[in-house]
Structure formats: structure tokens, C-alpha cells
Amino acid sequence: MSVPSNFDEFLDGIWKQNPIFVMVLGMCPTLAVTVSAVNSISMGLATTFVLAASCLLVSILRSAIPKQVRIASYIVIIATFVTVVDYAIQAISLDLYEALGAYIKLIVANCILLGRAEAHAAKNPPLPATLNAFGMGLGFTLGLLAIGSVREVLGAGKLFGLSLFGPHFQPWVVMVLPPGGFFVLAAWLIVFAAFRHINIKRNTQLGGVQS
Amino acid sequence: MSDTPKTITPSFAMVRTLGLVSVICGIIIVGVYQITLPAVNANKKLALERQVFKVLPNAKKVVTYYATPTGIVIAEGQDQPPAQAMVFYAVYDNSNKLAGIAAEASSAGYADQVRVLYAYDIAKQAITGIGVVSMRETPGIGDKILTDEDFLRNFTALDVRLSADMQALANAVKTVKHGTKTNPWQIDAIAGATVTSKAVGRGINESAQTLIPRLLPHLEKLTGVTP
Predict the structure, then answer these.
(1) CA angle, corner B90, sides to B84 and B92, nearest 5?
(2) Which end of chain A has less neighbouring CB within 10 Å, N or C?
(3) Are B24 and A171 within 8 A, CB to CB?
(4) Cβ contacts of B36 on chain A, cutoff 8 Å
(5) Among partner residues A68, A80, A94, which is closest to B44 by beta-carbon distance?
(6) How far is CA A186 from each of CA A114, A134, A193, rounded to the nearest angstrom?
(7) Interface contact flag, B18 A84, Cβ < 8 Å
(8) In this structure, what are the phi and psi dihedrals at residue B73, rounded to the nearest 5 degrees?
(9) Which residues does A contribute to its contact with B (CB < 8 Å)?
(10) Which CA distances in Å does B197 have to A106, B48, B50, B114, B203?
């Protein structure tokens, strides 16, 4: 098996193994905070930082951590960087901190983080581990942004807080309520599944023509 | 079964690793806490002033106080709030004159706690404005308390006079059904957002019932302060 390049490691999470649309991981923040594009980007970047920093530290310490205590060690490392992000967001903007609420602290329970630490960072050197985690984080951010933008446009008639349709727009309020998260996520999953289906069909046809 | 002997990790190595990880993580957390603390405190002060200035537009300076059953004390310099203390903000205008009092009220709404900051006018003995500190009410329904002009008009002079014995409000603040308000101490609810309207009324009533009787007997302490 060929060893993936650093660029492949980075791209992996953005497209091929996108945490939201392909692996369907981290659904709690995906459904809860995506009521606006700004919230989505903020949560995505916070998760990206925690992912990259914790995978870097796990990778550096990987040979020193015995497997019996690895999960405890990973959780402590992840919780540390979640605390760091929590303080940083409070220092940057209290409004954003209020908007993201308990979901900043809940990053610690996001399965993408422990999954990456266990499945990738613990087995790879620091550079590919960090790049892979960074790519995953950006993939997660793009996924949240895709959902958050649609919900904000339909549910509030705005994008990044800017009004798009003028004062006479009647917002589709359910889109910024919890059911809206499920509707938009489902719609994006259908789009991604359709893409994959078309790709597979095209590859099969190409394979048939070549043979 | 494999004949390869399993390597046994000594307990000391596991404890040492967990200790090492904890020390590294501890240093990171404490370091970041110390670095961000001034910015976090500045942000909190700014957010409070922004809220207070919204309900008391003449405000220039805000001083935080604790109201206890026995009196009022300035919060600055106190490590811990006194027992049964209630926080309120004395607000001063450009000429260092007491412009009003602001305090927080909180009660359970439809989705979560509805927290509002209200302005209390000492001369009028009335609540003269409210601003929402935080809420998670239904968008388009409960959050009308932020924008509904008829609802906000309830707080131009909401009567919170004290009774003759100065132990409680003369008339409890009460939210009534939309269109049935007859007295100045009543709040006319928003049609369709009654639960949130009632939460605002209940919160203000509970807060004012405790704060104003504690505050008025010691008013000279506030007017005498030069912030």
C-alpha cells in the first residue's frame, strides 16, 4: 500500500472522509449550533484548533503513552485544548460565547476528536497527524457552514447577519428551530449521496469501455 | 494461541505517563487562563456597560453594589458576595449624579431562563426600561419581547411603588392577557408569546420585591458616592 502524501492527508477530511457528510460524525454541534453562518464557522474553527492541537500532542507523545492508559491520556489532552478554546472565545467575544453556549465545552465529547487521536495521530508522526486533523477540522467547518448558511438564509432571510431579501421577507422560522437542522442535514446528505452515486456509475461505465 | 509473550507495562510507567500528560496539560491551561484573564474581564465589563447604557441612556458610569437584608455595599474589593446578596448597578450621569438603578431579573421562559436587565427610576418609583441579557426563546414568537413596541411600552413607567411599611411592593408586578391591562403595575402580554411575557413579569416582580425594599432605606449611600 502506498503511503499517502501530506497533501493527501490534508485533503482526506475535506472531501473523501468529510466528518459530517461522509462519516456522519459530530452530529450534536452539527444540529445544534448551525442556526447561522457565523456560529457555524466559529464552532468549526474552534473544533479545528482542538483537533489539530490535540492530534499534534498525541502524536508527539505517542511512543511514551502505554496503550492501557491511552484513552485517559487522549481525553485529558482533548479537554485541555477545549478549555483553551473556551478561554480564548471568552476573550475574543462574549456575544459569540453566549451564542455557542454549552457546545464549546461539548467539543470534548465530539467523537471526531477521540476518533482522530486513536485512529490516526497515535500511529503517525506529528506532521501528517496534524495535517490530517487540520483537514478534518476544515472539512467539519465547511460542513457546518453549508448547513448554517442554508438555515440562516431560509430561516432568517440573512447571511452572515446581512439581510438578503428586504423587510417584506417572511422567514421560514422552522429552519432556525431544531427540526430545521435535521431537514437541511438530510438535504445535504441526499446531495452528497447523489454525487457519489453519479461518480460510481461514471467510473463503472469508464471501466466497461476500457475493458 | 500465540506463543509470543505479552509485554507487560509496569504500573509505574502508566502512572508516570498520566502524571506527565497531566503536568503538560495543567501548565497549558493555567498559562492560557492567566493570559486571557484581563481580556475576559474587560469584555465582561464592556458587555455589562453596554446592557446598562441600553436601559439608561443617560448613563456614563456604572458602580456594582450588593444589596443584603441589612444594607448595601460596593462590590469592588469584595472577594465573595455577602450572604443573600443581590447584585444591582448604580448608574451615574455626566455630572456624577445618580441617573438610576439597573438590576437583573430572571425567570423560566418557554425554552430556557429569560434574563432581562431593568432600569429603576427612583424619583418615579417605576421601571423605565428593559433589555434582554440572554434568552433562547422561539425565534419569531418568544423573541418578540425584544422588538414588540406595544410590549416595550409597558416599561416606560411600570409602577413598582413600595407599600407603606416599605417591606414589599404596593402592587405586585403582573403580566395580564393581551388587551386587558388596566393598572400601571400590570404588563400587557404579547398575543401568542404569553409564556415569555409572563416570564419577564415574574422575573421583574421577584427581583423588585427583594431589591427595592433593601435599596430605598439606604439611598443616601448611593447619592453620596462619587464614582
Answers:
(1) 175
(2) N
(3) no
(4) 87-88, 90-91
(5) A94
(6) 25, 25, 10
(7) no
(8) -135, 150
(9) 57, 61, 64-69, 72-73, 76-77, 79-81, 83-84, 87-88, 90-95, 98, 155-156, 171, 173, 176-177
(10) 31, 23, 23, 10, 10
Confidence class of residue A17 from pLDDT cuts 50, 70 and 90?
confident
Q: Quick one: closest CA in B to A93, which residue? A: B43
Average of per-residue pLDDT across A38-48:
91
What is the per-residue DSSP string for chain B? ---SPPPPPPHHHHHHHHHHHHHHHHHHHHHHHHHHHHHHHHHHHHHHHHHHHHH-TT--EEEEEEEETTEEEESTT-SSPPTT-EEEEEEE-TTS-EEEEEEEEEEE-SSSEEEEEEEEETTTTEEEEEEEEE--PPTTTGGGGGT-HHHHGGGSSEE-PBPTTSSSBSS--EEE-TT---STTEEEPPTT-HHHHHHHHHHHHHHHHHHHHHHGGGHHHHHT---
* Model pTM score: 0.76
C-alpha cell at position B126: 417605576
Tell me how far apart the alpha carbons of residues A141 and A33 are, in angstroms, rounded to a whole number: 12
When pLDDT is averaged across residues A97-122 and rounded to a whole number, the result is 86
- The position carrying cell 421562559 is B109
What percent of chain B clears pLDDT 90, i.e. is strictly above it?
41
Residue range A134-158: mean pLDDT, rounded: 93
Among B213, B203, B47, which residue's Cα sits nearest to residue B116? Answer: B203
**How far B219 CA sits from the closest chain A CA (Å)?**
33
Phi and psi for A64 in degrees, rounded to 5? Answer: -90, -15
Locate B170 and state its grid cell: 404596593
Q: What is the DSSP letter of A162?
A: E
